[in-house]
């Protein structure tokens, strides 16, 4: 059984408190929402943050609202189950609910959040392995090693983003709102969040907090999500 490394677990009760803790502990700390991506990555020692700041108690990050323009404001802590079932989402942007419903299994959708989904780490077959497995091949350049096993002569990492919601959010023009631990807020087009690099794959700063996602009014647009995969289950 793989165990988590030791770390300090902090549970702020407000966004302001979470940002203050992030400022205090610096970029080696890490947020956790549902933990379905972070905990396995820590068990595999791909990440070993000394401090983990839980977002679970931040009621401000929950909920789905209709905006004045007729779009949607989705809190980052909204679970994938809530997103798939929400009448406001199914009416305005059914493609977002469709993609959420196709993610993994019900237990994972009950824990996993939309914020975490948009911010999951990149992966490949050589990287998505236990510490012992990766050590046996002398690791790779994404963590602890020097070369890329996918393309050994490549100067870069080719690990990919596997979020089902990321392509949907980019396609429909969603905007993401982040708050910085050093003060200030910024809004980013979803497709400006992602970079074509397996290691530096996000333009987000390490402890910027994703607070919510704004979907535009549908204005007659119709979109569907079809997931191509080898298995029908997950
Ligand atoms: C068996 C299995 C199957 C999976 N299948 C799929 C699949 O089919 N499709 C798919 O898209 N994904 C899949 N995933 C990936 C992932 O678990 C889900 O996408 C899930 O939505 C991640 O959300 P989370 O809240 O659990 O993220 P977490 O694990 O809590 O966080 C993920 C990352 O985001 C950061 N983070 C989370 N929330 C915030 C925030 N508000 N602000 C700033 N940083 C934040 C964390 O620090 C961490 O780096 C799978 C995972 C597993 C283990
Ligand atoms: S460098 Fe990137 S693509 Fe290459 S093996 Fe490692 S994680 Fe995979």
Question: What is the CA-atom radius of gyration, in angstroms?
Answer: 18 Å
CATH architect. name = 2-Layer Sandwich
Beta-strand percent range = 5-15%
Bound molecule kinds, no repeats? flavin-adenine dinucleotide, iron/sulfur cluster
Secondary-structure-based class equals alpha/beta
Strand count: 8
SSE string, helices as H and strands as E: EHEHEEEHHHHHHHEEE
- How is the CATH topology named? Uridine Diphospho-n-acetylenolpyruvylglucosamine Reductase, domain 3
What is the straight-line distance between the termini?
22 Å
| Top-tier CATH class | Alpha Beta
Biggest sheet strand order reads 4-5-8-6-7
Average pLDDT, all residues: 96
What do you see in this structure?
26% of the residues lie in helices and 15% in strands. The chain has a single domain, classed as Uridine Diphospho-n-acetylenolpyruvylglucosamine Reductase, domain 3. With 234 residues, the chain is of the alpha/beta class. β2, α2 and β3 form a beta-alpha-beta unit. The two termini are 22 Å apart. The structure holds flavin-adenine dinucleotide and iron/sulfur cluster (SF4). The site of iron/sulfur cluster has 13 residues, from loops.
Descriptive tags:
binds flavin-adenine dinucleotide; 15% strand; 234 residues; 8 strands; single chain; alpha/beta; Uridine Diphospho-n-acetylenolpyruvylglucosamine Reductase, domain 3; globular; binds iron/sulfur cluster; 9 helices
């Amino acid at each position: 059984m793989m165990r988590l490394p030791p770390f300090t677990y902090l549970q702020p009760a407000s966004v302001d408190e979470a940002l203050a803790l992030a400022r205090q502990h610096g970029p080696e700390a890490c947020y956790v929402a549902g933990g379905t991506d972070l905990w396995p990555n820590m068990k595999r020692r791909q990440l070993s943050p000394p401090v983990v700041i839980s977002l679970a108690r931040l009621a401000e990050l929950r909920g789905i609202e209709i905006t004045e323009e007729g779009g949607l404001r989705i809190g980052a802590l909204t679970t994938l189950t809530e997103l798939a079932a929400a009448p406001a989402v199914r009416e305005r942007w059914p493609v977002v609910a469709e993609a959420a419903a196709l993610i993994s299994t019900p237990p994972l959708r009950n824990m996993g959040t939309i914020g975490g989904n948009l911010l999951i780490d990149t992966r490949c077959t050589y990287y998505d392995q236990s510490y012992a497995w990766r050590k046996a091949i002398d690791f790779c350049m994404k963590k602890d090693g020097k070369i890329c096993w996918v393309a050994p002569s490549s100067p870069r990492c080719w690990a990919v983003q596997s979020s089902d919601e990321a392509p949907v959010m980019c396609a429909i023009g969603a905007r993401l709102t982040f708050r910085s631990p050093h003060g200030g807020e910024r809004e980013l087009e979803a497709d400006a969040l992602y970079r074509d690099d397996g290691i530096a794959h996000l333009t987000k700063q390490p402890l910027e907090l994703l607070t919510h996602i704004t979907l535009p009014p549908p204005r007659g647009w119709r979109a569907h999500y079809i997931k191509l995969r080898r298995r029908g289950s997950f």
